[in-house]
Amino acid sequence: MSVDDKTVHRIARLARIAVPKEEISSLGTELNAILGFIEQLSEVNTDDILPMTAVVETEIKRREDAVTDGGYVEDITANAPASDDDYFAVPKVVE
Amino acid sequence: MRASKLTDLSLAEARDGLLQKDFTSEELTQAHISAMEAGRKLNAVILETPEKAIDMAKACDAKLSYGGGGALEGLPIGVKDLFCTKGVRTTACSKILGDFTPPYESTVTQNLWDAGAVHLGKLNNDEFAMGSSNETSCFGPVNNPWRNKAKETNLVPGGSSGGSSASVAAHIGVAATATDTGGSIRQPAAFTGTVGLKPTYGRCSRWGIVAFASSLDQAGPITRTVRDSAIMLGAMAGHDAKDTTSIDTPVPDYEAALGVNLNGKKVGIPKEYRIDGMSDEIEKLWQQGIYWLKDAGAEIVDVSLPHTKYALPAYYIIAPAEASSNLARYDGVRYGTRHEGDNLLEMYEKTRGAGFGAEVRRRIMIGTYVLSAGYYDAYYLKALKVRRLISDDFKQAFEKCDVLLTPATPSSAFTIGENLHDPLAMYMNDVFTVTVNLAGLPGISVPAGLNMQGLPLGLQLIGQPFGEEALLGIAEKIEQAAEFDARPEVWWN
């Protein structure tokens, strides 16, 4: 499978990354080289093989559903590019 | 003792010197601060914290004076910029994080400070740990302290932990923290004549480490000796309730695992690691390693890991997929830099378009594609199945042996710029290391000699889950047999 300019544009949109128009086609070439490389996996027979989602098989840990942290809003917003009265500030979304 | 000589000491020697009161932590730390300042041409340290280091050293001296202190009391180390450090700028070497200053400390670095380590500064790395040469850092490349005999060009120190490997090789710190997602501890160690240990997945907490690919990331040390590696790992490792994937199993005394007898130990040689186009010097090094371990009493057995060639392609689906998800958090809202747009979506896109470098952008887009509707099964699910086959290969091999011996890298350090515009050539650097991450196993790279150009080469040992003790014991035998005591000629002062 290989991607065309339209698909590169769509992936960029999905990834929320602005890509300048003049870079779309060269980016597509780079992505196709990588996709061509990973294509080799289709040679491997994986019938009846379960996908591996964890390298160490352990039971999922459980804990009491309780508040164990928090209460330092100023620390949290200190690194924000824009904040106002303990809130993160973003461009207007609702008119 | 002259100050310049204090930087000659290994971590264990410095520790012993402090305990015997041959010098103070402040003297030791000052010597390393001077080495750090003199080594700025290497670009290994991107944020120096000398005042903090001296304050910490003084506090250590107070503890040491009454016989107190932890396993690393008074020892100055560097920290890869992927570890969040409270009140000290942490960027993952990406423009998108700007001047992010964490209000919290990563568990691994907290463990190190609790053990008495002294913080020299933050170390350069590939942006978000994505790279094998440290060239994708927004702070620019790191120069390897080692140069080839012609000495005309600067070489890469490996990556992504290039600042860690270069700083340790240049004797700027006694040790450094590093992280390894596909080889980022072991490959830079091999390129700089240092020891790099990637522990079993879950051995060290990932909490507070900037996430790249969460099912593969693991923290570990880069040091100059195997003993130093054992001491550092002991301080870094441990269960952490804040990381549900960290494993609740006791941390052994790794230093006590050294000095073992190899009689009866079985070392497996996986035939699939003899790849097409592998250079003679790597083949020779591997044979040398086999000879050394045989000579030390180990039995050599041939094993097969049939799915090895599919590890890199599987990795370049799984790691970007996880990265595309992990890096979704950099949106210009809660931290880092922001590029304004007319609306929220445009703000996200501009922020991320300007903030991410070329390699990170490539990987996020590959990850987004393989997870997108219609491609998930063909790519992502397929890769997870191949990952199980790779893991099963190791399980079968370990029925016949205790550890595996392989080369660490397919070549010695290459020239800055050589592979930068060829992603696939760059990815090949991890061909011997990436399998270990996919299977969650521990691996260590040990310096084993110099090639014709006078550059270091490393051998890799791969262990069973939580088999770090066996790994370190056998690694020490390679270290002893190799008698690797070469140091790069100082050109950077």
What report would you give on this structure?
The complex is a heterodimer of chains A (95) and B (493). Chain A has 95 residues and is mainly alpha-helical. Chain A has a domain at 5-43: Histone, subunit A, CATH 1.10.20. Helices cover 35% and strands 4% of the residues of chain A. Chain A has a two-stranded antiparallel sheet. The model of chain A has no long low-confidence stretch (mean pLDDT 93). Chain B has a domain at 3-261 and 467-482: Amidase signature (AS) domain (Amidase signature (AS) enzymes, Alpha-Beta Complex), CATH 3.90.1300.10. Chain B has helices at residues 3-6, 11-19, 25-38, 50-65, 107-114, 162-169, 186-192, 226-236, 280-295, 311-326, 344-355, 358-371, 376-397, 423-427, 434-439, 468-482; strands at 45-48, 76-80, 118-123, 175-180, 195-198, 218-223, 266-270, 299-303, 403-407, 443-450, 456-462. An eleven-stranded mixed β-sheet of chain B has the order 1-3-2-4-6-5-10-11-9-7-8, with helices on both faces. The mean pLDDT of chain B is 96.
Features of the shown structure:
heterodimer, A: 95 residues, mainly alpha, two-stranded antiparallel ribbon, 2 strands, B: 493 residues, alpha/beta, Amidase signature (AS) enzymes, 11 strands
Helix-residue proportion of chain A: 25-40%
The backbone outline of chain A, from C-alpha atoms, is: flat
The arrangement of helices and strands of chain A along the chain is: HHHEE
CATH topology of the domain at 3-261 and 467-482 in chain B, anyone? Amidase signature (AS) enzymes
Query: Largest chain-chain contact?
Result: A-B, 54 and 74 residues
Taking the sheet with the most strands of chain B, its summary is: 11 strands, mixed
